[in-house]
Amino acid sequence: MQQNPRGKLTDERGGKVMPQEQKLVVESVRRDGRPFRPADWVERISSQLAGFGPDHRLRYSEYVHPCVIAGMKCLVLKRSLREQNPAAYEFILKFARDNQLSIQEDRRAQHSPPLQERRKEG
Predict the structure, then answer these.
(1) Does a structural domain hold residue 66?
(2) Tens digit of pLDDT per residue, the chain (122 long)?
(3) Three-state DSSP class for residue 65
(4) What total of structural domains would you count in the chain?
(5) Count of CB atoms within 10 A of residue 120's CB?
C-alpha cells in the first residue's frame, strides 16, 4: 500500500483501499462481572436481523452476528448498521446500556464473517 498525491491509501495498482470495517463487541457479562441472563440473548438479537437462505437455514446478517471470544458469547455489531438500519443499531446499543453489558471496539487481528455453512452437502 502507498499514499497517492491526495493522501489516500492505494494498492499496487492504484486502486482505493477501504479502511477495515469498524465493529463493536457486546459481551455477555455485565460491567460488575456477573453473567447476563438469559444466556441466549445473543442468538435472540442476532436472529431478529437474520434471514433464511435457499436451503431454508438461518443466515445471520453481515451487520449483526453471534461470536465466541475467549469462551464467552458475544454479539458482533458493524458500525455501518447505523446507516443501513438506524432503529436496529440504536435498539442494540440501548439494550446493552440498559443491561449494563460491556461494549468495546473489536480489536481482533483477523475478522471472520459469520459461518454460512457448517455441514457438508451430501
Answers:
(1) yes
(2) 344 454 443 444 444 444 457 999 999 999 999 999 999 999 999 999 999 999 999 999 999 999 999 999 999 999 999 999 999 999 999 999 999 999 999 887 655 556 555 555 54
(3) strand
(4) 1
(5) 5
